[in-house]
Amino acid sequence: MRKILIIEDETAIADLERDYLELSGFGVQIENSGDKGLVRALQEEFDLIILDLMLPGLDGFEICRKIREKKNLPIIMVSAKKDDIDKIRGLGLGADDYMTKPFSPSELVARVKAHLARYERLVNSNVQENDIVEVRGIKIDKTARRVWIDGEEKNFTTKEFDLLTFLAQNPNHVFTKEELFKEIWDMESIGDIATVTVHIKKIREKIEKQSSKPQYIETIWGVGYRFKM
Ligand code: CA
What we know:
The protein is α/β, with parallel strands linked by helices.
């Protein structure tokens, strides 16, 4: 279920918005003050925020700016004053849409859906751009050539990266050192198959909790290595 946060001090308006959004299948949370709203917006995961401009505590301008510093999600700003809407539009605070109160709840629902669909398209197109390999706690971004182990980024040399990626993309397959050397180093004259052993050791130091008891790259004695799925 997609989650929406409504930051609105007028309870009747907030409740009306929530009722319509819930009828459309959204999960809705309401905060009535600006500072509490900002804290929730930053600490919790929401798919979209409906933000009133005039609020006790912290106003909508400030909240919008602070959310934008940290998060990328659609923000719809609402205000009772048409003049304010024109003003905030001009400020370029980064809100995705502006609505003047009173508006029809179904209009709000339509805009919420449109913005969610647009953000999903953006997110999906980013995923397609970067080629990601994920195996248990290891995430390899092949496009950016970056690696995270349990969410923590680790640095790999070019050959370490190539070797790890090759193994992770071919799990449960035993490769001999000769095969790995040919695959990763190919015709480069420097090094020999002992290089493979050295690189496996370096990779294990970065990805395994205990290098002596590897959970990812297994040694198959007398044959080579296998990446466990
Ligand atoms: Ca208000």
